[in-house]
UniProtKB/TrEMBL annotation:
This is Trichome birefringence-like N-terminal domain-containing protein. Coiled coil: none annotated. Keywords: Membrane, Signal-anchor, Transmembrane, Transmembrane helix. Residues 45-98 form the Trichome birefringence-like N-terminal domain. GO terms for molecular function: O-acetyltransferase activity. Belongs to the PC-esterase family. TBL subfamily. Its main location: membrane. It is found in: Membrane. It is a single-pass membrane protein. It comes from Buddleja alternifolia. Residues 100-388 form the Trichome birefringence-like C-terminal domain. It comes from the Eukaryota.
Length: 397
């Protein structure tokens, strides 16, 4: 009897599903749709970036302080940050679908013989560190890996998978020049940081044939904290200074245009390219160097987010959304997919290392860390989203 039903099932279920999938695949990638219940079928990608954090008291982190890939100042369990169990009990629940927790063995099997690279600043390093610690659950033989311009990384021998991080905080090449011969140095300028807007930093200049998946970012270095007036960024194109000289923000626009064009052109079409949007900071009561604090026990409420982050309110943490507008504009029409991890992270004022930095004088010297994230913690949710997006894109071709 069952065999008689099979052709009917094919017509009634599978064929319409294919048609549906074909239809959805012609829509923008973030189109929201309920999860398909047919096994072995990847549901059309939904909007994983809109949702809420729900407390799930039995939820546990997948790794602990003994992961060998930790960076000391983010190893919050070892540094005895208050509240770590609670921080890791919040689950991100998208509005219209499920976010699966990454299955380390399943993901590594899917990626067998493939490599994932992160290029950008320490927020991407924070992301990669979480990814390495999560995947190590699926391959205890994971080893540290460092090659081809990589700052750090991990190799998973059971699956022949490599994860690497290429540090390139501005993405474009930049270097210190004490006495720039081409430029008349204004009073008070000690030297410049020359930025070649059309040349990628050497750390990721030659990785095009190695990675199957890449995740880019840049953002929080584009400020006067990092490059004050005495040591400014000066932008060059085609080997010559851009005239009239560009302000930092205009320089960022030109760098984004050039780097996005370079990524589009230099990497093979089959390489999956993502750009992760800004990681929001949570300095309360002042900037990082003005005793700004993030000793919070709970995520923010949705109704609080605009007062923290809307640029119109001119708060200490406004730049994430400002940068995102610019980046999203430059990514339009390119082969690079956007990972909008900003909104979900905006809630999590409770999940930064804050005063628990693992070194006695760190807070006095550097202030609280309300920018990077505790591990385990919020970046593990970024990993779940990235893994689901990779799986979706690989399986759907
Ligand atoms: C491991 O993967 C690389 C691609 O990253 C491939 O070139 C190599 O042949 C693989 N090695 C084995 C032993 O499968
Ligand atoms: C930060 O706090 C310390 C100690 O409470 C105080 O001495 C200092 O003036 C504060 N700095 C700022 C910028 O508020």
């Amino acid at each position: 009897m069952a065999s008689k039903l099979t052709p009917q099932i094919i017509t009634c279920l599978i064929l319409p599903t294919f048609l549906l999938l074909f239809f959805y695949s012609t829509l923008p990638p973030l189109y929201t749709t309920p999860t398909s219940k047919i096994p072995n079928f990847t549901p059309p990608q939904c909007n994983l970036f809109k949702g809420q954090w729900i407390l799930d008291p039995i939820r546990k982190s997948m790794y602990d302080s003994t992961c060998p890939f930790h960076r000391n100042s983010w190893n919050c369990i070892r540094n005895q940050r208050a509240n770590m169990d609670r921080i890791n009990s919040w689950k991100w629940v998208p509005e219209d679908c499920d976010l699966d927790r990454v299955d380390p063995v399943g993901f590594l099997s899917l990626m067998r013989g493939k490599n994932v690279g992160f290029v950008g600043d320490s927020l991407n390093e924070n992301f990669l560190t979480a990814f390495m610690c999560v995947l190590r659950v699926g391959d205890g033989g994971a080893k540290k890996w460092k090659r081809k311009g990589a700052w750090k990384g991990a190799y998973f021998p059971k699956f022949n998978v490599t994860l690497g991080y290429h540090r390139a905080v501005l993405l474009a090449k930049y270097e210190w020049q004490a006495k720039p011969p081409e430029l008349s140095v204004q009073d008070g300028v000690k030297g410049i940081y020359r930025v070649d807007v059309d040349i990628p930093a050497v750390d990721w200049a030659n990785i095009a044939d190695f990675y199957d998946v890449l995740v880019f970012n840049t953002g929080h270095w584009w400020g006067f904290d990092k490059f004050p007036k005495e040591t400014p960024l000066v932008f060059f194109k085609g080997g010559r200074p851009i005239l009239p000289p560009l302000e930092m923000w205009d320089g960022l626009k030109v760098v984004l245009e050039n780097m996005v064009a370079h990524i589009d052109k230099a990497f093979p079409k089959k390489t999956l390219k993502f750009w992760r949007l800004q990681s929001p900071r949570h300095f309360h009561g002042g900037e990082w160097n003005q005793n700004g604090s993030c000793v919070f026990d709970e995520p923010l409420q949705e109704s609080q987010l605009d007062s923290w982050f809307d640029p119109a309110n001119n708060g200490a943490n406004k730049e994430a959304r400002k940068l995102n507008h610019l980046i999203e504009e430059k990514l339009k029409g390119t082969s690079i997919k956007t990972l909008d991890l900003t909104h979900l992270s905006e809630f999590r004022a409770d999940a930064h290392p804050a005063i628990w930095l693992g070194k006695k004088d760190a807070v006095a010297v550097w202030g609280q860390d309300c920018m990077h994230w505790c591990l385990p913690g919020v970046p593990d949710t970024w990993v779940d989203i990235l893994a689901q997006s990779i799986r979706y894109n690989l399986e759907m071709g």
